[in-house]
Amino acid sequence: MTNLLAGDLDHVLALTQGVWEELREARLFVTGGTGFFGCWLLESFAWACDHLHLATTMTVLSRSPEAFRDKAPHLAGHPSIRWIAGDVRTFPFPAGRFTHCIHAATEASAALNREKPLLMLDTIVEGTRRSLDFAVSSNVHRFLLISSGTVYGAQPAALSHLPEDHAGGPDVTDARWVYGEGKRLAELLTSVYSRQHRLDCPIARPFAFTGPYLPLDTHFAIGNFIADCIHERPIEIRGGGTAVRSYLYAADLVIWLWTILVHGQSRRAYNVGSEEAVSIAGLASTVQQALGARQPVRIAGQAAPVPGDRYVPDTARARNELGLEQCIPLDEAIRRTAQWHAVPAAIRGEVRA
Questions:
Q1: 282: in domain
Q2: In Å, how far from its chain's centre is CA 96?
Q3: Helix/strand/coil percent split, the chain, to 5
Q4: For position 353, what pLDDT does the model report?
Q5: Mutual angle of helices 330-342 and 280-290, in 10-degree steps
Q6: Residue 193: inside a domain
């Protein structure tokens, strides 16, 4: 069968040709390869291998490769992708020399952050150190840390877009910020290892996204709204709808990640996301219009702005230094996400290159 993501993957390939030439015959190691980011890294990697004949291999760490095989058999069984089972905090180092590492493990789970904050913190910090130790032992020369925009803490009301040199940070007296503070520690660890072991370590700080593989039933507002439209339900907003976010499409996201891995400056952070701010109420209306939904948007709370409830990056550094930009507009990103999710999972799992 035809890969349902063929158009997106061709888009990725067209804007990353130079990246793949740098990765020809490379040996990559990836943690977090089965989540939203990981699936897109694997999809784009497999597509590049099939179309450019790279002779490149990727080894992926997963807690359960067998479970992922049920989710995406075309990726689990791809000849250029190998698997090892293990916990990111304790995994056995695969044998041999590797050239590149992408550390993407850490579930961006609001429930885990709320219910088991110590587990969240341990997974981020211990997992990052274990991955760095592996990189050093395997003579890796490029290590991409996928951090988070939450390292900045609450965005000041007077700041429309967060730049990488913003000096803010999470409130360390509030356990709800454990994810963001954990990522700050991960960045610090990465910088220390980079200096001590001469390891090139660019850092990506992602914000908010949409696209195939994004869960529609968790804490991501855009996913919930798309699910409401697919199932012909009213779009429900629990708060006042005044929180402000921005959303980058997954195909653009993975272009940015591959480019930062290969061309990003070591110990330099790059915001990854869209600069096009939208309120949650505005997002609901955009989803409704993009999908032609007839059901209403219902706002449960009062439309009063909440201080610090804005999360929008300044991406001038990525644009000016690496030539990166948003290509897929939000309404089109929403349509592509909904179209992919509307296809039964059993059929999605049968895709081929």
A1: no
A2: 28
A3: 45, 15, 40
A4: 43
A5: 60
A6: yes
- Cα(253)–Cα(272) distance, rounded to whole angstroms? 7
Residue 85's CATH number:
3.40.50.720
Quick check: helix, strand or coil at residue 189? helix
Tell me the three state secondary structure of residue 45. helix
Residue 27's pLDDT band, with cuts at 50, 70 and 90, is very high
Q: Which amino acid is at 243?
A: A
Q: Which two tokens stand for residue 185?
A: 């520690």
Sheet holding 244-245, edge to edge: 278-279, 244-245, 310-311
Sequence-ordered strand ranges (E) for the chain: 27-31, 57-62, 81-85, 100-103, 142-146, 203-206, 209-210, 235-237, 244-245, 248-249, 269-272, 278-279, 297-299, 310-311
Which of 221, 216, 214, 275 minimizes the C-alpha distance to 248?
275
In 3D, which of 239, 246, 245, 225 has the Cα closest to residue 304?
239
> Residue 155, SS3?
coil
Give residue 178's domain range. 6-210+248-275+311-328
Cβ atoms of 194 and 188 within 8 Å: the answer is no
In a domain? residue 269: yes
Residue 157 in domain: yes
Neighbouring C-alpha atoms within 13 Å toward the C-beta of 98: 26
pLDDT digits (tens, 9 = 90+) for 154-204: 999 889 999 999 999 999 999 889 999 999 999 999 999 999 999 999 999
Q: 170 with 180: CB under 8 angstroms?
A: yes
Q: Name the domain count of the chain.
A: 1
Q: In whole angstroms, what is the distance from residue 2 CA to residue 131 CA?
A: 35
pLDDT digits (tens, 9 = 90+) for 251-268: 999 999 999 999 999 999
- Nearest partner of 110 among 100, 118, 102, 120, judged by Cα: 120
